[in-house]
Amino acid sequence: MWKFLKGNIFLMLGIFIIVLLLLESFKNWVLVLFSEGKSFSSLDSSDSVISDVQARSIAEQLHKAMGTVWGTDEETIFNIFSTISVADFKKVYNAFGHRPYFEPFGVPTLKIVGENIDLFGWLSYELTNEEMVKLKGIAPAIFSLNT
Fold first, then answer.
1. SUPFAM superfamilies annotated for this entry (predicted)?
2. Is the dihedral of CA 58, 92, 45, 120 positive or negative?
3. Burial of 99 by CB count in 10 Å (0-12 exposed, 13-18 middle, 19+ buried)?
């Protein structure tokens, strides 16, 4: 028995991951089927002074800082939030949009497997409570938008 387990560890690990992904997909499908869904709305960014290209660039920097299996780059997130105004954040938030996130592994994923969440959701999943307190201290006005 031990010899079989030792020889097939990668196969069993692969099967386990596939089962986990299927269960997560099924859960999301059932939730969508029996719920009213999430209501996503963009923020009014008419008073922003950054361009659409700059907003997309910042959104991608934030996604890159959070979207890795090797951990979150908190310093990049803190640096971005320390230099951005509320008006410009609204444009970045809209550019970030709603991206699929697979909570069990904490990584971005395909829409069919993950849950579509906004930038506030990504931040809450990726940062610890202490890091969220620090971020809210850096940019308190931005987090008053998330109510």
1. Annexin
2. negative
3. buried
